[in-house]
Structure formats: structure tokens, C-alpha cells
Amino acid sequence: MNKPALYLVPAPLGDTTPSGVLPADHVEMVRKLDCFIVEEPRTARRYLSALGLDVRSLELEVLNEHTSPAELNGLLEPLRKGRSVGLLSEAGLPAVADPGAELVALAHRGGFQVIPLVGPSSLMLALMASGLNGQKFAFQGYLPVKSGLRDKRIRALERQSAQENQTQIFIETPYRNESLFRALLDCCAPGTRLAVAINLTLPDAFICTRTVGEWKGKEPDFSAAYRKKPCVFLLQT
């Protein structure tokens, strides 16, 4: 760490041990940092403590969806003073479906080194295990909340998948997983393949790929076993 760098520190996808997230040499890198940019200080402190850091001595700055563009520049001040900084997501990889992307772009513009550390990505884990096209895929983020716009978007993604032989990947706020799943069954053709990946890397993880027609009557139990648990959806025609 001779030159100041922005380290992108992955976090667990759920309640798992740090050894299941970061290789040992990466843990040692993180332990050398004393300044972190985090989404939520409380959970960040718990994770960093589990990595072996003394959280009482750490400097934590917050970056979330409420952080203004004007505030971003100030978050890089430690780098300008020669101190390396860790960017920590709430779950998974920083800057992927995460507000950290803008900070990473700013670090590049400032000429600072950006170093990504190895860790879990629910999107890539789901794609790996889905059996769908891993050569050509697109992450679509969140679909519209309103049912009319959501259904229109689902049909558009299904057409795009057919035209480009492309896997479409998207996520939803956990309490809306069931409604999105049922919309997919209603909107997509019976032969369209749909993969559902829930709570990946956790003991109760579930991932299954079926056609839309095959899913009917075999729906995951979103109301009980998988209530409010993170889910990745993937479809391919």
C-alpha cells in the first residue's frame, strides 16, 4: 500500500463468516486500512470486526442513495492525503447494483488506483448455476414497480432475449419477489426458461431453472421459507 488506492471490499450475501467471502491474503489487505466508505455503519462495523479490525479506531464515511454528487468529492479526501480507503457494500460487490459506482468513476478521474478484491456476486453466482446463456447476458437492475409498466418491461425483455439469444438478469426488493415471479408466469411464453436464485451462499439457498409452463404449480414458497430474502431472476427464450 505504498501508493494510496481505493480498495473495493466485497461483503457477505448473508450471515456467513468472512472466510467464506474473502481469501486470506485479501483479509490481510483490508486489515491494513483504517478508513472505509460504507452504506450502513452499523452492519459495516459488524463485518469489519469479524474481519479482525478494531472498529473503534476506524474512520467510516457513509455513501448511500441519499449521498449528493457534491458530497462524493469529499469522500476521496483521504486518498488526496495519501491514505488508502476501502469501499464496502452492504452485500456482494461494491459498485455493482450499488451506489459506489459513481465514487469509483470519480477516483479514476482523480488518477487514483482502484483495486477490486475477490468476493461473491449474487448475479454471477445465479448465472453460473442457471444453465442459461453465460456468453451473452445483460443485467437489467430493478424492473418498474407499477404493474402495467412492469409487465410491459417483462415482455420487452423476453423479446430482446429471443432476438439476441441473451440471458436477462434482474432483481427485486425482497418483499416484492412473489409479485414479480407471478408476473413473469403471466407475461412470458410457456417455453421461456426462468431461473430463480434465492439466498445464495446461505444454508437455505435455492436455485432452479424451469420453463414458465413447468413453474406453474411448483412456485417457491415466497410467503414462508423465502419471505423477504434476496432473489435473482434470469430468463431466456
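The record above closes out task 2.4. Task 2.5 opens with a second protein, given below.
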Amino acid sequence: MHKHSSTSRSQATHFSISLLPRTAADGFRMGQALQKHGKNEEAAVCYQRSLALDPSDLQLWNRIGGAFKELGLPQHAVFCYRHIVDRVPNIAEASACLGSALREMGSYEEAAACFRRALKLQPENASFHNSLGVVLRELDLIDEAVAHYRRALLLQPENANARWNLALVQLLEGDFAEGWGNYEARWQRDNAPCNFPQPLWRGQPLGGARILLHAEQGLGDNIQFLRFVPQVEALGGKVILALPPSQHTLAAQLAGLSSITFATTPPQPFDWHCPLMSLPMALGITLDTIPARVPYLSVPDQARTRAASLPWPARGLRIGLAWSGNPEHPYNRFRSIPLARFQPLLQLGGAHFFSLQMGKAAAQLEPWRRRIADLAPATHDMADTAAQMEQLDLVITVDTLAAHLAGALGFPVWLLLPFAADWRWMRHRYDSPWYPTMRIFRQSEPGNWQPVIDRLRSELAALTEKGFPPMREELVHSARLWPVAS
């Protein structure tokens, strides 16, 4: 079967190449058609053929650069845009496009230089100010980033992307008072929450009214913001929760919940609605009033029984690993770590490792199955993962669902973060105001995981040398004592 698929793919590629056009314009159109039908490799061949046929057409270079960017080939896009900028350096849009492609590659300093060059040519361009702000935020130049976001909003007050990016920096810095309000700019962006005819709840007393709280972003976001459900119930709301099916069994244990539905169009009627990510603004949450008492989720009994029946080792430190987030996340390649990078940890004696990884990245487990036990075959939904975590002494994870789940359950969790981490982990902190049992290990420079892995190995070696039984209480206690900032 595999051989037949490979042969068909080869024939399809050969068929496309055999029909390569003789003019650059035809090549571009053929590339677009192939790209539209998901034949991205063949499309790339057509685009490259077009450039070879007419290398003098800068407009063609620009359009093909955009096509390469859509194909997820930023290095090819950089080649196209750099070709334009080298020949006509006074085109602001070309410099901005080059900056955008460089940013996708993680070349932030060069990307910033491109956006600065574009702004010299068009200093009143709000989009360029916003884009430069994003790159500066990746470089941890927060004050400069804020200045450019505010400049973009001064030039274009309705610029939802600039307001959203400003919110992310404000939340990163702990400025929740203004940050939550600007976070609502997502209603004007492509990733807007689901809307309903019923009024959007903004914190009014509910007096027994039925309110739909609905999932909006990732599974980890849902876990993080479920902590607010009891507060909504305390304001008089009969809470209906709309979540993905994989989270239903676990969320059913939550205090203050009336019912759970499978869809964002629930069968039962309701009076108000609010996406989970808007609850902090509706409730007026500040850095000091985050409801951080854990656990706020609990392990269902049936899942606990299933997990307890697994062949857990009687001695040694039990460690759960998750090394990759959602591959659809735009920053996943920066926050994820190839499993092979954890080899120094896997060589430690006195420790047993268990894979909590789901999705495509779980395929990386194959060469390591003698050292890492795979929990996926025993995992039917998130309640099973929670029960398995209960059997572990420590969870080590990148910024993904496992971090939120372990934190919400009050289990010891070590979180590995890239240099420019998500807003919720704040800036330069090694603890989390959201999860008291969490310790954070951060990159000190973009893209360099080696010092993080070295620190992990040192910390784990110190734990395994102390002997057993497992030391969960000590791990939790150490998380609480860890310094807040560098």
C-alpha cells in the first residue's frame, strides 16, 4: 500500500513537471492551480520554473514570494523578496514582505532592520509599525514594541491587529487592567470567538439566568480558564459549558457547573454567553486576584481506576514528557523541542519516563520506546491523561496542554519555554501566578535549548540521588520557593 502511494505521488509529480509551461505567466497560473488543490511541491516547481523563464519581472518575484510564504516555505520567500530589495531598495512593501518572511524563519534582528527600512520610506504606515512591534517583542525589546503598537493605533485606531498585539504585551507585563480590554480586539480579527444572538456577558449579576461559557482557542486555554466557572456561578449564573468532547469527562467534575454541551450551538436555551477567554475582563481579574488555588479540577473515579491498573514501576522517579504542541499553532516550531534533544535526561538512572505526547509528534517516540513508555494506547480522553499524571511524580513539558492540565490538577510540573514566551507565562518569571506547583525553565537566547536541557539534567540528577520513595510533596514545595524573577 505504501509503495503504491509513493509510486502514485511520483507519477503525479512527473505528470505536473511534464506539463511545465513555456511562459512565466502560464507557470504562475499553473502553480496557483496546483497550490489550490494541495499539490504544494508541484506548485513550487512551477513557480521556480516561472522565475527561470522571466527573471526580470519583479512583480512576478513578489507574487511568487507570497505564494512560497503561503506554502510554508519562508526561506524561498526570503530569496524572492531579497531579490527585489537588492534591485529596488526603495520599495517599502518589498522590505516589509522580506521582514515578514525573515520573522517566520526566526531571523528577528534582520527582520527588524527590514521593517525599520520600510518605515523610513513610509513612516505613517500603521501596518509597518505593528509588524515592527511584533519583531521587537520577539527580541524582548518590550518598551520599543509598545511604542510602535501605540503609534500604529494613533495612525489607525481601528487596527485590531495592533490592539491585539498591544494586549499581549500588556498581559505579559502584568498590566491586566488595560490588557484584558485590548484583548477583546480579537472580536475584530480573523480568529474571532463564536458569537450568538444572546447578549455578551460583561460581568452583570445573573440572578439565576442561564449563561453559555464556550471554548474559543486551544485545549490548554480551556483548562486555564475553567477556573473562572465557580465565580460565574457565584454571581447567580446557571453555567452551561461548551467544550470539545475530549474534555467533557474531566470538566464534569468542576464546581459551579450545570451542564456540558458538545457544540457551540447547544440544544438547551440560554440567556447570556461569554467565551472563556473573555471571563477575566468580565470578572475584573487583576494579577493579584487570579484564582490560583489548585486543584480546581479533579480526576474522575473511573479514569483513576484505569490508570491505577497500568504496570507502573514500584521504584524510581516517574516522569511524564510532552515535547510538542499543536502543529497548527503559528509558533509551535519555536516552543516545541525534538524528543532526541532530551537524550541527556533519558540517560539518567533512577528515573522512568512516560510519554504524554499526542498527535503527529508522538511518532518521534519510535526510537526511544525502550526508554519511554507510551501512555497513548491507554488514553481515551483528557480524564485518562489526568489520571495518568496522578500516578507520576513530575511532568516535564513544553508550552502545551500538558502544562495546563498538570497545573490545574495541582501536580508538580516543569515548563520549558522559548525566549519570547506566550503572555500567560509573563516575563522573566520562573514561577507562575496561574499554577502554584509549576517551575519554569526559560531559554536565555532565541532558539537555544541546550542550556535548558543541561539545567534539567542537573536538577533531575539531584533528585534521583536523594533516593526514594518519590518526592511529590518536595517537588511541589520547591516550586513554591522558586524565585519569581531573574
